[in-house]
């Protein structure tokens, strides 16, 4: 009987899996990482080393207090939790780092965490329910505070609510953000958008900006995103395809963001399939696998190859996710090169005193979408009839053709 190519590939993996670890040379290999067979202990060290390299600046520090006594200082970091493999793995890595800091520094840590899960069930009933956070909180009770917020809570912030109140004719002294139905306003906004890609794009923007608003309100020093190498590559090509390529340095690089708070990507050097292995197998620092906590993760592709090829019922973001998920195992260097190339891009510098921000995504504008041609309509940046004039190109494309809507945020 002729052995199929797939069977040959499975057999090759099985043979590699029973080899000795390429690093310690003593223990049987358990996983294959970028063509290298590793045991669980060496794989654990590999993942932790990638993470620690990105978190060196959050070690325990000491500074004088008001009386001049040297005391440890501590900052607060916000971690968005999606219940996917990346954000769950990040929590475990953070927990291990904090334990190590306590052991070395007499119980002191360099930071504490505020873990936020954004509940989007009003938009998509299939997303993980709020109750899912209980198991995660129990597992990582030592890292900080856990909180669930609703996506429609974006309307609770003062600069947000005031704009909607004005649009609805609500008197500031007689009413507030509670005088309108937040869910209703949000659903009206999303339903006014012209395509599934636009809705997914705008929902992602709202999620990011809600997390930023919470981080600033709580005095957090930075937001730690759980984006892997694969996710950053997906974002790079997706944002470029959507006409928001100018924003790539802001959306993929460690450091200050245009929102006035730092963005960090501690697992940016790890592929998604490596993080899937990390949460799936017992490890020295995580004897009990984390996969049961990853309730938002599914190994099955959301769309078929035929849908991806034809573009039917699939958004740009989903297409990029499917593409990179398909090549990362066999061609990890391609995924890493996309992120490396993106890292060489520099943010657009504007003359001093000029600060143009897109009113939708809030990022420094690319010259505004008002000077571009959308479909057969040329948008003029100086005409008051076109709301797209204050948007970047990508957001102008996403919002073009939308009906009347209330945008909840200001640049």
From TrEMBL:
Annotated function: Plays a central role in 2-thiolation of mcm(5)S(2)U at tRNA wobble positions of tRNA(Lys), tRNA(Glu) and tRNA(Gln). May act by forming a heterodimer with NCS6 that ligates sulfur from thiocarboxylated URM1 onto the uridine of tRNAs at wobble position. Prior mcm(5) tRNA modification by the elongator complex is required for 2-thiolation. May also be involved in protein urmylation.
Keywords, sorted A to Z: Cytoplasm, tRNA processing
One Pfam family in the UniProt entry: CTU2
Lineage, opening ranks: Eukaryota, Fungi, Dikarya, Ascomycota, Pezizomycotina
Domain of life assignment: Eukaryota
Pathway of action: tRNA modification; 5-methoxycarbonylmethyl-2-thiouridine-tRNA biosynthesis
Source organism of the structure: Morchella conica CCBAS932
A GO CC term attached to the entry: cytosol
Name this protein carries in UniProt: Cytoplasmic tRNA 2-thiolation protein 2
Gene that this polypeptide is encoded by: NCS2
Entry similarity comment: Belongs to the CTU2/NCS2 family.
């Amino acid at each position: 009987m002729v052995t199929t190519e797939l069977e040959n590939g499975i057999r090759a993996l099985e043979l590699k899996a029973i080899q000795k670890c390429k690093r310690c040379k003593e223990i049987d290999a358990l996983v294959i990482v970028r063509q290298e067979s590793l045991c669980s202990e060496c794989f654990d060290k590999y993942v932790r080393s990638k993470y620690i390299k990105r978190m060196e600046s959050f070690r325990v520090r000491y500074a004088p207090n008001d009386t001049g006594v040297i005391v440890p200082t501590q900052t607060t970091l916000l971690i968005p939790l999606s219940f996917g493999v990346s954000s769950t793995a990040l929590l475990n890595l953070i927990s291990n780092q904090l334990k190590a800091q306590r052991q070395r520094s007499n119980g002191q840590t360099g930071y504490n965490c505020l873990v936020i899960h954004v509940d989007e069930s009003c938009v998509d009933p299939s997303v993980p329910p709020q109750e899912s956070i209980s198991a995660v909180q129990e597992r990582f009770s030592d890292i900080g505070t856990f909180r669930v917020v609703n996506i429609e809570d974006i309307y609770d912030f003062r600069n947000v609510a005031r704009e909607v109140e004005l649009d609805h004719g609500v008197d500031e002294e007689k009413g507030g953000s509670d005088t309108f139905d937040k869910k209703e306003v949000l659903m009206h906004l999303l339903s006014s958008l012209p395509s599934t890609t636009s809705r997914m794009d705008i929902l992602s923007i709202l999620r990011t900006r809600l997390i930023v608003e919470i981080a600033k309100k709580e005095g957090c020093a930075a937001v730690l995103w759980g984006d892997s190498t694969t996710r950053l590559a997906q974002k790079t090509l997706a944002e470029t395809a959507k006409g928001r390529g100018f924003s790539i340095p802001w959306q993929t690089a460690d450091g200050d963001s245009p929102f006035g708070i730092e963005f960090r990507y501690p697992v940016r050097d790890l592929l998604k399939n490596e993080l899937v292995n990390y949460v799936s197998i017992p490890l020295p620092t995580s004897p009990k696998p984390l996969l049961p906590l990853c309730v938002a993760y599914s190994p099955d592709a959301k769309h078929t190859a035929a849908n991806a090829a034809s573009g039917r019922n699939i958004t740009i973001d989903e297409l990029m996710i499917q593409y990179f998920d398909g090549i990362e195992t066999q061609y990890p260097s391609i995924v890493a090169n996309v992120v490396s190339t993106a890292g060489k891009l520099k943010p657009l510098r504007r003359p001093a005193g000029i600060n143009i921000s897109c009113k939708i995504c809030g990022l420094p504008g690319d010259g505004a979408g008002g000077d571009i041609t959308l479909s057969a309509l040329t948008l003029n940046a100086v005409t008051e009839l076109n709301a797209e004039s204050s948007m970047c190109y990508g957001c102008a494309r996403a919002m073009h053709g939308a009906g009347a809507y209330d945008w909840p945020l200001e640049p």
